[in-house]
Structure prediction request, 461 residues.
Amino acid sequence: MSDSATRLLSLSRCYVPLFLFLVCSMLLLNYESVQQLAATNERRALRNKKVYGAANQTKKSFLILMSPAEIEKHSSDQGILDLQDWEYQALQGLRGSNGSDSVVAQNTCNPPPGVSRTCCVGSYSTGGAVESIYRHRCSASLQAGTLEALQMDARRFFRENPVTVNNNNDDETARQCDMCHIVELARSANLSIAFVGDSMQSQVVDGLSCELERRQYTVTSATTLHEQHEGDIYHRHSSTRELQIRSSLWDSSDTVSIKYHMIYRLPLDVNAGQLEAIFDADVVVLGFGLHWNYGSNEQGLYIQAMGDLLTTIRQQQRVKLLVHRETSAQHFNADGGDFVLWGNSRTLGVEEVAKCTSFATDSKSYFWREKAIRRAANHSGHAIVVAGPDMLKRRQDISTGISSELFVLPYYHYTANHPQLHPQGQVGDCTHYCSSPFLYMPLWRSLRLLLDFKFIETTET
Prediction:
């Protein structure tokens, strides 16, 4: 045998066993991967199959998990997304203005494509739609420390109201972003959502849209102005704004719709068909209260109006999750921060600009609207359930069908801690707030907890 043949035979004796070992190892690894994938899929199928009935309804265990692509696209692994570069630049430009320079404030509001200008820090509702053109009035309100304090409060709220996180060692994990979770659940469960209420509710809905836009969801908005007639403008259904939400990660046909109906005060001056259309949704979030003021017979009118509305909604047998957003705190220099009490205390004939300030918690008008809501719920036969981790203890007591409970989003005390966040200067507005992403985050967390509680069967992990 030649030397080359001898060397070739020797090499084959060394490498053939090694080659066979590598092939066997690859086959074994592939088999184990297939087995793990099959086990993972089996666990998911079992979770998705679980249903239980109550009040002739079924409640499904939707699998609401995020993928690596979603983390990259929507930052859905972050519960509180810090200010993005464009938001920080808008804030710094606002802080650098003198509080009266609207041009500077406008020139420093440069959101990226797909993000509305009203998402710039300091935009606020001027009694209807949210505007960015007056954000210079928030220059003094958003100086160093104020926004940081609000963000700290948001983080504290999150710690006190944690969400259930899946820990089943799957290749996906539960999302931390509350608004991402809300729209993903609405898409999976085919839920329709409607917000109804006044100008602060308008600001809340704009904050919702901005939170999705800053996380790179596509949001298109269309507003329909309704034909008006003679009568009190505050009792009219002024307009309907519809948000169409999409993601590049979804199928092209997938869309989540969220509507906002602007109504300032009840009773509503519409016919029965129009009223039914307003509350034609699976989830309805009410945001009334600021157009009833402390004193005279206003408390009684508020209790009566809200009680009648709650009764009407229940009689329609349509809404599955009925929610009341607590009113945000006012900070006029009067008992409980109330606007009318401040107005009554002014010197007759003297023009005064309101100065927003904190108020004592033992004020006679402190939290009065929320006390009134509880009385209205009691009169209309609704049980009050405040969003939070304690809800799980009451799961067996809460129906999964047509709502006979009024769920509450806590918000009053969160906003009461921040009297400095109102527009300042000549405007004298101690009702609306200079917006930022952190202003609304407790609402998204609480709404997420409610949706999970009502529509998702949670299992112990």
